[in-house]
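Lab manual, section 2.4: Encoding a predicted structure.

Procedure: take the sequence of the chain (356 residues), apply the prediction step described in section 2.3, and record the output as structure tokens. A sample record is shown.
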Amino acid sequence: MKRRTFVGLPLLAAAWPSRGAEGYPAVVPGGSLAFPRDHGSHPAYRTEWWYVTGWVRVRGGEPSGVQVTFFRNRPRLAEDNPSRFAARQLVFAHAALADPAHGRLRHDQRAARAIFDLAGADESTTRTWIGDWSLALEGRHYVAKIPAREFSLDLAFEATQPILLQGQEGYSRKGPERWQASRYYSRPQLAVSGRVVVGDRARDVEGRAWLDHEWSSEVMSADAVGWDWMGINLEDGGALMAFRMRDASGAARWAAATLRSAEGVVRTYAREEITWTPVRHWRSPRTGAEYPVEWRVRVGEREYRVRPLMDDAELDSRASTGTIYWEGPVQLQSAEGDPLGRGYLELTGYAGKLDL
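Recorded output:
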């Protein structure tokens, strides 16, 4: 893998405040991620998530999408309270199954305080859980066990490629101020195997998935309302991530992208090299929110078409994280319509400003 060197970043980091807004540590350039430690949680920071999305299918069957997400949040409430019941950390989880034959997402959510052994996030490795919901790294496999209300997932995601550091060696800018950033890495091209159960029907599935692990204390500027993001496993073995932070008018406040070729060469793209253009919208019959579900996305000299596997992929998580967003499987195509890859698209801030 080709790596870039950013001269002077440690000196710049030393000149910036080490504490972010409201007493959280700021994410600033410099330093490097260290594994296996950085597979684990970073409880001093405000927000953190482990995000797995993928395409799966029964052998010979039609594809569907799966999503498993665990969030950790430090609310900074009652941190001096010696009680074991004090909510120093909160854990949330979302899970969804996107089956075009069903026509809309099957999804479920959980939220809990990280007390006793009811919920938590391990600091030494990826292991986060709420009750009997869990996501854990076991050797080369991430294992998700999600007994949800309408479905259950028992899936393994095997790492087949090196970790992909996003941004500047894992420092990912999200806004005009340098501390509006996250630590961010991805695990593309995960090989999926396992079982999906819907009702009394169990199906063995296989496929490809993508994992993001990200932590931050201030990931959005005040005038940003949400973001558009995609993570795509390319058919040739490469990987593409692109996002933009969006203001109330729909204009991009920030943007970035990373492309890893099939040969392992990594290229990062600056905000001016990326353009997101909506092509088609879908309106939710439940919330009235309108989502741009089909796009033309330019990354550098390449232009892509992004098309959803199904339109109705709205996830209402007001019972846990308090947000409503669109998250669904998409196909990446060339400008001429040739298939290039499969992955997931996330659209936030269309049902109201995202509040992390």
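Check your result against the sample. The mean pLDDT is 90.
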